[in-house]
Amino acid sequence: MGPKGLRRGNLKIVVAEALIAIGLFLVDPFDLSAQKARMIDRLIARLSEWSYKSPAADKTAVVLIDQETLDKIRADWPFSYGIDVEMIRQLACAHAAAAFFDFTAANKYNLGHDSLQLIAAVRDSSSVRHCDDGSQPGKIPIFFGKTPKISSPAEDELDAGGHALYIDTTAPESIYSVGFDEFPAQPLEIRDMTPAFGLARTICGNADADSELNCAGIKQATNDTRPLSLTWNAYTNDLQHAVRLTGGCRKPLPFDLKRIRNVIGYSIFGWWESASIQRCPPIFTLSGGDLFPDFADIEQHGDRRPYLKGRIVFVGVDLSGLPDVVTSPIHGRIPGIYVHAMAFDNLVKFGDDYYSTPSDSDTYVFLAVYFLGMGLIGEFVSPAASFWVRRLEKKPAGRSHLFGWRFHFAWTAYFAPFILWNAILLGVVVMLRWPASTVLEMLSYGVFTTLAVKGAASIYSMKDA
């Protein structure tokens, strides 16, 4: 008797399989989905890291307030408003294109009472005292961070003037929202945006915007409401080797068998993690101490401030004991400021075609289509596979069919539709600019639940036979 078609009982099994798989995927009782997501994201990022090159490499920079900075200016963290003003002056004298400080101007995170001086410097950076060479500081856009639950008079004044950008401390590290909500109902104003989107719109809104920044695509991107799925950069800026490298960083291994072994080992099993966290920074980086060089420092290492000319500068904190750390699938644990810098880098490279993540409604529709498809495919092909396997089992004794063509055909016929279905949906995911890990996570649940139910049914049927 040949394979049977789809019946009402089969349809119930299909729906049951889909509901089980969707429930496991959404509830994630043992945190398996989150762990697989991290593993898949690491693997994809490490295998595709060499394909990412951005024109923003020469347009962005990170300045880290580290222990060297504190030692050089003989100050403690948090800084006073006066030190913030001096950093603004140094960036304006270096003629940076813009600057974002990844901390708030609230009293909780700043010391001193010279907030009026800070507000004046943020509004017009050219109003601070002259540069060391006697020239006038440039007028550049300056932004500080803000969070919903922290406020102060200085913070409120900067926010009212559009000089404070929203810092999202609760979003997943791989997802970068446009604003406070993950999917805003309408395009946002700059003051309601996160740093990367706010800076991108500010820079491209200037009449003399840099033509190399693809401002047409960036303007469309900043009018979008989709969150950005981060793509990390494995390349090291050439200028990075002209400055002192922090943390003993090194270039990635060449793409050979040893590197492939490290990629697979780190992504799947967590091996060779030390080789990852010693990577050089993804964005050209200076220490905050480089903004305050003395004569001996310039004599020994040169003046690094001119490297910041024309760059959008992201100022962050890299101090032990502070929680502002994120995990990059390529670089390991790095200061949180790199998330903002890489998000801006992604906007410059992709414009409005940046990778995003599906909304809840899109996720539910995709899950239903995916798992119902998996179940229907299983119901169509499993009878055919069972039919051929039963025929092989009825051959005369003493003849091995383990490597026979019929055996291979039966199992190929069983698995090929599953592979084709996942390949089709993976193509849909790529067209929608969703992360490939989305369909790969669903694949793991879909294959598991489908094969588990089919295996249990097969064992039950053989027992009855």
Summarize the model shown.
The protein is an alpha/beta fold and 465 residues long.
Explain what you see.
- This protein is an alpha/beta fold and 465 residues long.
- It is 48% helix and 9% strand.
- Strands 4-3-2-8-1-7 form a six-stranded parallel beta sheet. It has a two-stranded antiparallel ribbon with strand order 5-6.
- The two termini are 15 Å apart.
Defining traits:
465 residues, 48% helix
Strand element count: 10
**How far apart are the first and last residues' alpha carbons, in Å?**
15 Å
Low-confidence stretches: 271-277, 397-403
Count of DSSP helices?
A: 15
| Percentage of residues in strands | 5-15%
Report the radius of gyration as a whole number of Å: 28 Å
Biggest pleated sheet: 6 strands, parallel
Give the proportion of residues in helices: 40-55%
Global morphology = elongated
| Biggest sheet: strand arrangement | 4-3-2-8-1-7
Label the structural class.
Answer: alpha/beta
Provide mean pLDDT, rounded. 77
Secondary-structure element sequence?
HHEHHEHEHEEHHEHHEHEEEHHHH
What topology does this entry show?
Elements (H helix, E strand, L loop, with lengths): L7 H20 L4 H17 L11 E6 L1 H7 L7 H13 L4 E7 L10 H9 L18 E5 L6 H8 L3 E3 L8 E2 L18 H11 L9 H8 L5 E2 L27 H13 L3 H5 L7 E3 L7 H7 L10 E6 L7 E4 L3 E4 L1 H14 L9 H34 L11 H27 L5 H28 L1
Parallel strand pairs: 1-7, 1-8, 2-3, 2-8, 3-4
Antiparallel strand pairs: 5-6, 9-10
